[in-house]
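Re: [ENG-882] Designed sequences occasionally contain unexpected residues at chain ends

Forwarding the minimal case from QA. Structure tokens:
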């Protein structure tokens, strides 16, 4: 949100995505999007 407010517009989300959670799961957001696109 801060990055969007600084440039007064949308920014690319990929640099801000979580790549690994506390349980060791990696690329959760990306895998979720891919799963939705496959259905």
């Amino acid at each position: 949100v801060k990055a969007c407010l600084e440039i007064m517009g949308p920014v690319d989300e990929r640099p801000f995505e979580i790549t690994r959670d506390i349980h060791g799961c990696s690329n959760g957001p990306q895998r979720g999007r891919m799963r939705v696109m496959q259905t």
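QA comment: On inspection the terminal residues look reasonable. The longest helix spans residues 28-38. Proposing we downgrade this to a documentation issue.
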